[in-house]
Design goal:
Blueprint lengths: L9 E5 L4 H12 L3 E6 L2 H11 L6 E5 L5 H14 L5 E4 L16 H29 L2 E8 L10 H21 L4 E8 L6 H7 L4 H10 L10 H12 L10 E4 L9
Length: about 260
């Protein structure tokens, strides 16, 4: 899509130096948005900025962890100062650990860690960016989570639980924020190709490899979605094309949720 319908909009995408987060940032930039990348590693952020140059969009990188409120608050303030008030917030990224693990093999510390690394990076950026959106009486928020939150998956009880919290928050905040004309939506993902995470899963043997090898054989549409295909859904929800869409979760999973595994 070549149109620049997001011209003048400022978008912050957390966890966006690689993978799905980067593809979302790139898609927003192609639509004309001024884009702020975010991640914990400065070197990765600078490299990602170079890969965005072809879009011609104004873009910056602000380092910081979305799982630490003090850091993400500073990121939000810096983006507003450098690019302008934030119109679009996409919360992506976060740690992949602990990964898919049978429940009986989880350690007690894994439960808290999962919420710290998978849920807090979704809720903290929203809380930090909300005052600016409230003041301007507009905004669009897109949360990225796992489809394991909607469909029970072997070894993903804990991962799915953190995602379910994100999906419920999406609905609750969409209702609460509607008074300020702020929309909140969610994209739920399964295995996504052409990402570092995809490569990591299949680079070594083990439970994850077996789990997702099985998943690959069961996509009704014949393959796993690409990061670019995920990005297009996220950008649609962020844009005015979805002006009457709020509180929704869209699964981008090649039809995998048609039925059980």
């Amino acid at each position: 899509m070549d149109k620049k319908d997001l011209q003048g909009k400022v978008a912050l995408i957390t966890g966006s130096t690689s993978g799905i987060g980067f593809r979302i940032a790139e898609a927003l930039a192609k639509r004309g948005a001024r884009v702020a990348l975010n991640g914990r590693r400065t070197a990765a952020g600078e490299e990602a900025l170079g890969r965005l140059a072809h879009t011609g969009a104004e873009s910056i990188f602000e380092p910081g962890s979305a799982a630490r409120y003090d850091e993400i608050s500073r990121v939000v303030a810096a983006v507003a100062q450098r690019l302008g008030p934030i119109d679009i917030l996409v919360t992506s990224g976060g740690s992949e650990k602990p990964g898919p693990t049978p429940f009986h093999e989880l350690k007690p510390e894994d439960f808290l860690k999962a919420f710290e690394t998978r849920y807090l990076p979704r809720v903290f950026p929203v809380h930090a960016a909300l005052p600016g959106m409230r003041e301007r009486q507009r905004g669009s928020i897109v949360l990225i989570t796992t489809d394991a939150a909607r469909h029970p998956t072997p070894g993903e009880a804990l991962i799915g639980s953190t995602g379910a919290a994100t999906i419920l928050m999406t609905k609750a905040l969409a209702r609460e924020f509607s008074r300020w004309k702020i929309r909140v939506n969610c994209v739920a993902l399964t295995l996504t190709s052409d990402t570092p995470r995809y490569d990591d899963i299949f680079s070594k043997p083990g439970f994850e490899n077996k789990l997702f090898t099985k998943a690959l054989s069961r996509f009704p549409l014949g393959r796993a979605p690409t990061a670019e295909e995920v990005a297009q859904v996220a950008v649609f929800l962020a844009s005015d094309q979805a002006a009457q869409v709020s509180g929704q979760t869209i699964s981008v999973n090649g039809g995998l949720s048609f039925g059980g595994w």
